[in-house]
Amino acid sequence: MTQEDRVLNHLMQGRTITPFQALNEYGSLRLGAIIYDLKHKGHNIINEWEHNQDTGKRYARYRLMPKDELF
Fold first, then answer.
1. pLDDT mean values, one per 10 residues, the chain (71 residues)
2. Distance (Å, rounded) from C-alpha 18 to C-alpha 47?
3. Residue 64, class by beta-carbon neighbours within 10 Å (0-12 exposed, 13-18 middle, 19+ buried)?
4. So what's the pLDDT on residue 66?
5. Which of 55, 2, 57 is nearest to 33 (CA)?
6. 3-state secondary structure the chain
């Protein structure tokens, strides 16, 4: 199973994923590239920006939207 398959399965379970989670759970350093590829394959994935108050850094949290759900 590829990292892309693992990330998609993660999202299809109704879970969200961050770059830190992708690294820890799937060994993926390129979550943004995986999400890009999944989007171009037709998956409705959105990102929500979060802010780590300890480090001052921003990061994306991705989630899969049902195909019939509009935002």
1. 96 97 96 98 96 94 82 53
2. 9
3. buried
4. 81
5. 2
6. CCHHHHHHHHHHCCCCECHHHHHHHHCCCCHHHHHHHHHHCCCCEEEEEEECCCCCCEEEEEEECCCCCCC
Work out the angle at residue 1's Cα, subtended by the Cα atoms of residues 41 and 42, and round it to the nearest 5 degrees. Answer: 10
Structure tokens at 51: 């802010």
Can you tell me the distance from the alpha carbon of 22 to that of 59, in angstroms, rounded to the nearest whole number? 12
This prediction has a pTM of 0.86
Indicate the angle between helix axes 3-12 and 19-26, nearest 10 degrees.
Answer: 120
Q: Is 69 left (phi over 0), alpha (psi -120 to 50) or beta?
A: beta
Q: What is the pLDDT of residue 70?
A: 56
